[in-house]
Specification:
This protein is an alpha/beta fold. The protein has a single domain, classed as 3-Layer(aba) Sandwich (Rossmann fold). It contains eleven helices and seven strands. A seven-stranded parallel β-sheet has the order 3-2-1-4-5-6-7, sandwiched between helices. Helix 4 links the parallel strand 4 and strand 5. Helix 1 packs across helix 9. The longest helix has 29 residues. The termini are far apart.
Length: about 260
C-alpha cells in the first residue's frame, strides 16, 4: 500500500510512534489523517500541524472506537488503513499484578485491536480492500523480562494479527504487525534503569515511521525497525530451551536474579 490519497486513522497519534506515523503519512500525501488519542490536546496539536482531524478516544472502550470510525467516515469517507497503535507499558511485575491492572492493559493492548477490526473489516470486505497496521512490539515475538502483563498482551496482539491475516488476507484485507524493540518514546523513558539495554539500540519514532512506510509498500506482515529482532525470533524457534536459558541470563544481568 502507498499512502498517497489514502485515508488513515492512527490511534495513539498524539505522541511517540503514533505522532511520527501521522506526520509521515501526511508527508506521503494521504488524503486524510485522523489523529486519535486519549490526550485530546496532543491530538489537536498534531492534527493542526498536518491539517488532519483530531479525535479524543479511549481505545479500551468499544463505543469510542465505533465513534472514531463513524466520525472519520463522515469527514473523509471510507478508511483505507486503520493503525491501532495505542498501547500501554510501564507495568512491571508478574503473578502478583492485580486483576484490575491486568484488565486495564488487556483492554488497551488487546481488545483495542479487536474493537478496531470489528469496526472496519466489514466495509473493507465489501470494497475488497483495506489495511490494518497493528503496533505489537518485539515483546510479542520474544518476551518482556520483568513484565508479565506487557509480554502476555503483546503475544495476544500478535496472535490476533496473524489470525486476521489468515482469515481475511485472501479477501483483500491486508495486515501488518509492527514489532519494534526499544523506541525513544515516553514509554521507554518511564521504564527506569532496567530498560537501559533497550535504550542502547533504540530507534527514533521517525526511523520507525520510515520502516512502516517501507513495510506497507511491500505489504509485509512483520515490520521490524530493528532487523536483529528477526534473528532473535529465528533463534527462539530453532531452539526454544536454549533461548529460554539465554533470557534467564539476561534477566539475571538486568535485575540481579529478579
Amino acid at each position: 500500500m502507498l499512502l498517497k490519497d489514502k485515508v488513515a486513522v492512527v490511534t495513539g497519534g498524539g505522541h511517540g510512534i503514533g505522532r511520527a506515523l501521522c506526520l509521515r503519512f501526511a508527508a506521503e500525501g494521504a488524503r486524510g489523517v485522523v489523529v486519535a488519542d486519549i490526550d485530546a490536546n496532543a491530538a489537536t496539536e498534531v492534527a493542526k500541524e498536518i491539517g488532519g482531524l483530531a479525535i479524543s478516544v479511549d481505545v479500551s472502550n468499544e463505543s469510542d472506537i465505533i465513534r472514531l470510525v463513524a466520525e472519520t467516515r463522515n469527514a473523509f469517507g471510507e478508511i483505507d488503513i486503520f493503525c491501532s497503535n495505542a498501547g500501554i507499558g510501564g507495568m512491571p511485575g508478574g503473578i502478583e499484578v492485580s486483576n484490575e491492572d491486568w484488565e486495564r492493559i488487556f483492554g488497551v493492548n488487546v481488545l483495542h485491536h479487536i474493537y478496531a477490526a470489528r469496526a472496519v473489516i466489514p466495509a473493507m470486505l465489501e470494497r475488497g480492500e483495506g489495511y490494518l497496521l497493528q503496533t505489537v512490539s518485539a515483546a510479542g515475538l520474544l518476551t518482556q523480562i520483568g513484565s508479565a502483563p506487557y509480554s502476555v498482551t503483546k503475544h495476544a496482539a500478535l496472535a490476533f494479527a496473524e489470525w486476521l491475516s489468515i482469515t481475511y488476507g485472501d479477501r483483500g484485507v491486508r495486515v501488518s504487525a509492527l514489532c519494534p524493540q526499544g523506541v525513544l518514546t515516553r514509554m521507554l523513558q518511564s521504564e527506569g534503569e532496567a530498560a537501559q539495554f533497550l535504550r542502547d539500540s533504540a530507534r527514533t519514532p521517525d526511523e520507525v515511521a520510515d520502516a512502516v512506510v517501507a513495510g506497507l509498500a511491500e505489504e509485509r506482515f512483520l515490520i521490524l525497525p530493528h532487523p536483529e529482532v528477526g534473528e532473535y525470533f529465528r533463534r527462539k524457534a530453532d531452539d526454544y530451551d536454549r533461548w529460554l536459558r539465554g533470557m534467564r541470563r539476561l534477566q539475571q544481568k538486568v535485575f540481579g536474579g529478579g
